[in-house]
Amino acid sequence: MRKRALKRAFVKSLPVMVGYIVLGIGFGILLRNAGYGVLWAFAMSLFIFGGSMQYVGVGLLAGGATVINTIITTIMVNARHLFYSISMINRYKGAGRYKPYMIFALTDETYSLLCDEEVPDDIDVNLYRFLVSLFNHTYWIIGGVLGNLIGAVLPFSADGVAFSMTALFVAAFTEQWLSSKNHLPAVTGIICTTVSLLLFGKDNFLIPAMLMITAVLAIAGRKEVAES
Amino acid sequence: MRSAVIVATMAIVSFLLRALPFLIFRKEPPKFIKYLGKVLPPAIIGMLVVYCLKDISFAVSPFGLPELAACLCVVIAHVWKRNSIISILAGTIVYILITTFIV
User: Fold this and answer.
1) Which tens digits make up the pLDDT trace of B7-32?
2) Same domain, yes or no, for B38 and B15?
3) Which of A157, A100, A160, A159 is nearest to A133 (CA)?
C-alpha cells in the first residue's frame, strides 16, 4: 500500500521535476548574481518554497527592502494561495500528521496535481498527497542549489524547458474540462483573469481576478448553496 | 542578518497565507466555502494558465504564436491520450523546436 502511494506520487510528480529543477536553477543563478551563495539558495527554497515569491525575493534582498515592504510584497505575490487552501480544506481534512507540511508545501504546481484528482481506493491518499508535496519540494531545492553552484555553465535555454510548467497547467485544465460536465468554473477562471489582466496590467491583476472569480461563482452557485 | 530577517519574513508570511483558510475553517466549513472548494479548482487552473501567458505580447512578432501553438499541442495530445506526462512533453518539445528553429 505504501509502495503504491510512493510509485504513484513519483510518476505524477515527474512533470514537475523537470520544470522545478529548471526554474529552481533560474532562481539559483539569479540569487548568486545578487551576491548570495548556496546556503541562501538552500534555505530560501527549503523555507519559502514558492517560485515567483523567491524570484521577487531576490529583488527584495538585493534592493534593501524593509520588513514591512517584504510583508506587503509577499501578500501581493502569494495571495492566490488563500484560494488554493480554501479549495483543499475538504480534501486535506483527514490528513492528520501530514497536514501541516502539506499546507506549507501547497504550491501552484502541487495544487494543480492534487486539486481534482480521484485517487484509487487501494492507495493511502494522504500519504500519496504528502509524498507528491515532498517530491516537488525536493526537486525545487535541488534546482535552486544546482543553479547557485553551477548554473552559469548550463548548455540549454532555460526558457524553453520552463515552458513545461505552462504545459502542466494547460494539461490540468484540459483534464478537468474533459472530466466535468459543468464548464462554467473553467470558463469563469479564464475570462475573469483575462479581463483583469487587460484592466489592471500584468503586475496587479491576480487579486482582482480572484475577487471577480469568487463573485461570479457565488452568483452562479447561490441556488446550489441555498439548497445544500 | 538583515537578509536573514527578510527571508524569514517571506517564509512566515507565505506559510500564513497558505494556512489561514485551514485555521479559520477548522471545524465544519460553511456551505459557501464547501461550494467554493468544489468549483474553484477549474477556475484557478484557468487563472494559472492565463497567469503563465501574461508576458506574451500579441502586438509584436511572433505574436505569441509559439506559446499558442504549444498550448494547442498540449490540449490535442491530452484529448488524445489523456496522459499528463505525454501532453506536457509534447507541448514543451514543440515549444523548444519552434523557438529554436523558427522564430
Assistant:
1) 999 999 999 999 999 999 988 889 99
2) yes
3) A100
Evaluate if pTM is beyond 0.90: no
- CB-CB contact of A45 with A140 (8 Å): yes
Do B17 and A79 lie within an 8 Å CB cutoff?
Answer: yes
Instruction: Indicate whether B77 and B103 sit together in one domain.
Output: yes
The answer, yes or no, to whether residue A51 has pLDDT greater than 90, is: no
A168-183 average pLDDT score: 93
- Please give the residue range of the domain that contains residue A20: 2-179
Q: Is the Cβ–Cβ distance between A36 and B4 less than 8 Å?
A: no
Do A107 and A66 belong together in one domain? yes
Instruction: Find the closest chain A residue to B96 by CA distance.
Output: A160
Convert the pLDDT of each residue in A3-27 to its tens digit. Answer: 999 999 999 999 899 889 988 988 9
Residue B73: which domain range?
60-103
In this structure, the answer to whether residues A47 and A128 fall within a common structural domain is yes
Q: What three-state secondary structure class fits A203?
A: coil
Residue pLDDT, tens place only, A60-94: 999 889 999 999 999 988 999 999 999 999 999 98
Contacts of A61 in chain B (CB under 8 A): 3, 6-7
One domain for residues B46 and B5: yes
For residues B49 and A181, give the distance between their C-alpha atoms in angstroms, rounded to a whole number: 20
State yes or no: pLDDT of A162 exceeds 90: no
Task: Tell me what pLDDT residue A152 has.
Answer: 66
Number of domains in chain A: 2
Answer yes or no: do B35 and A228 touch at CB < 8 A.
Answer: yes
Tell me the HSE value of A162 on the side-chain side, using a 13 A CA sphere. 16
Task: Check whether residue A49 and residue A19 sit in a common domain.
Answer: yes
Q: Do A7 and A96 fall into the same domain?
A: yes
Q: CA of B92 to nearest chain A CA: how many angstroms apart?
A: 5
ipTM: 0.92
**A204 and A166 together in one domain:** no
Given an 8 Å threshold on Cβ–Cβ distance, is B10 in contact with A210? no
CB contact under 8 A, B14 and A218: no
Cβ-Cβ contacts under 8 Å, B44 against chain A:
80, 83-84, 87, 111, 115, 189, 213
Residues 32-91 of B with CB under 8 A from A: 32-55, 67, 70-71, 74-75, 78-79, 82, 84-85, 87-89, 91
What is the three-class DSSP state of B30?
Answer: coil
